[in-house]
Specification:
Blueprint (H helix, E strand, L loop, with lengths): L22 E6 L6 E7 L5 H7 L2 E2 L6 E2 L12 H4 L4 H15 L6 E3 L6 E3 L3 E3 L8 E5 H11 L5 H18 L8 H7 L19 E5 L14 E5 H7 L10 H11 L3 H5 L11 H10 L6 H14 L8 H6 L4
Antiparallel strand pairs: 1-2, 3-4, 5-6, 7-8, 9-10
Helix pairs in contact: 1-3, 5-10, 10-11
One zinc ion binds next to β8 and α4.
Length: about 325
C-alpha cells in the first residue's frame, strides 16, 4: 500500500485512506476455515440484523454465509444441514451472534501497519468511531511511543543494571592495577584519539579506556587500557574498539599496549570466554542484598545464557542453577 509522507517526527508513517473509525466483522469460513473480514462501517450490526440480512461470501472458496445457505458439514446428517432445518437455523443464529454480539467481537484496521485486527489489538479512545478505539494497533502504538519517548522501561533498566553488576562480579579480582604514570608514559601524555596533551594532575580531564569493554567481560589490564581525554572517552563508552578507532589506530594501539590486534579489529563484539564464570556465580550468589536467592538464580541464569557461557560452568554450578 502507498505510504504518504511522514507528518510527524517519528519516522513512522500512516497509510493513507484507511477507514480507521470503521468496524469490521471477522469470521472464519464454515466451509474452508479461511479468515474473512467484512467492513460494516460506523454502525454496528445487532445479531438479529446480521442473521436477517448478512450475505457474506468467503474470499477463498466463495461459500455464502447467510441463513439461506445449507451447511457444509459432511459429518452431519443431510437434513441437519438443510437451511430449512431447525439445526441450521440455530447454527446460523449462533454464528452471526458471535460475530456481532459485542463491540469486542468486531475488528478494526490499523492505519499504520494496515492490518485488520481484532478489537483487543487497539487501545481505548473514547471519541473515535463506534468501537472507541485508537487508530493504530497496540503494536504500532508501542513503536510510535518508543520514538516519541525513547526512555527504556523500568524492567529494561533493571536488566541492564543487573547485567552490569554481574559482569563486574565476573571481573572482580581479574582487573589489574594500572600504574598511571606508566600509562601516561606509554601514551606520551596524550589522548590516544585526539592527540591532545593531557595533564596527569587534572584528574577530571582524562580517563582510562577499557579498550575491550567490561560489558563483554574483559578485565582492565595494561594490554586493555588506553589513555583518553574525557571527551574522547565519553564518545567511546562501551563500544567495541573497531567501532570507535580506525584501523591504523588499532594497529598503533596494539603496538603500544601489547593487546590482541585480532580482537581489537574484530568487526563485532566477542565475549571473553576465558573468564572464570564459576567464581562469578559464587560471588553473585553470596552478595548480601534484599533480593531473594531464587530471583538471583534466575537473573544469573539469564546472563549466562545471554553470554552463552553455560558450557563453562562446573557440573556443580550447572546443577545448582538448574541447567541439568
Ligand atoms: Zn471459504
Ligand atoms: Zn498496526
Amino acid at each position: 500500500m502507498a505510504r504518504r509522507k511522514t507528518v510527524n517526527q517519528t519516522g513512522i508513517s500512516r497509510v493513507e485512506g484507511i477507514p480507521y473509525h470503521d468496524a469490521w466483522i471477522g469470521y472464519r469460513c464454515v466451509n474452508c476455515n479461511q479468515l474473512n473480514n467484512v467492513r460494516v462501517g460506523q454502525t454496528l450490526l445487532t445479531p438479529a440484523e446480521a442473521f436477517d440480512t448478512a450475505v457474506w461470501e468467503c474470499t477463498s472458496c466463495g461459500f455464502i454465509h447467510s441463513k439461506e445457505s445449507d451447511l457444509p458439514f459432511e459429518n452431519w446428517q443431510d437434513d441437519y444441514n438443510s437451511s430449512e432445518s431447525i439445526t441450521a437455523e440455530r447454527f446460523w443464529q449462533g454464528f452471526f451472534r458471535t460475530a456481532t454480539e459485542h463491540p469486542e467481537s468486531y475488528w478494526k484496521q490499523c492505519n499504520v501497519c494496515s492490518r485488520i485486527l481484532p478489537f483487543q489489538a487497539f487501545s481505548k479512545h473514547a471519541k473515535w468511531g463506534p468501537l472507541e478505539r485508537q487508530m493504530e494497533c497496540r503494536g504500532c502504538k508501542g513503536a510510535i511511543n518508543a520514538v516519541l519517548n525513547p526512555k527504556r522501561t523500568k524492567q529494561q533498566l533493571h536488566e541492564s543494571s543487573v547485567r552490569r553488576r554481574i559482569a563486574d562480579l565476573f571481573l572482580d579480582g581479574e582487573n589489574e592495577f594500572i600504574d598511571i604514570e606508566e600509562l601516561f608514559k606509554r601514551f606520551d601524555g596524550k589522548c590516544f584519539k585526539t592527540k591532545k596533551k593531557l595533564d596527569i594532575k587534572d584528574r577530571g580531564s582524562w580517563h582510562i579506556d577499557h579498550i575491550l569493554p567490561s560489558k563483554w567481560l574483559y578485565p582492565l589490564k595494561v594490554e586493555n587500557a588506553a589513555l583518553l581525554s574525557t571527551e574522547a572517552n565519553s564518545a567511546k563508552k562501551a563500544k567495541w574498539p573497531s567501532k570507535f578507532y580506525t584501523n591504523n589506530e588499532l594497529i598503533e594501539l596494539a603496538r603500544i599496549t601489547g593487546g590482541n590486534l585480532k580482537l581489537f579489529t574484530a568487526e563485532n563484539p566477542i565475549i571473553n570466554r576465558d573468564i572464570d564464570v564459576n567464581k562469578g556465580v559464587e560471588r553473585y550468589l553470596q552478595v548480601r542484598e534484599n533480593s531473594d536467592l531464587p530471583k538471583r538464580i534466575k537473573e544469573i541464569k539469564k546472563i549466562l545464557q545471554f553470554y552463552k557461557l553455560v558450557d563453562n560452568l562446573s557440573e556443580e554450578n550447572k546443577k545448582l542453577l538448574g541447567f541439568i
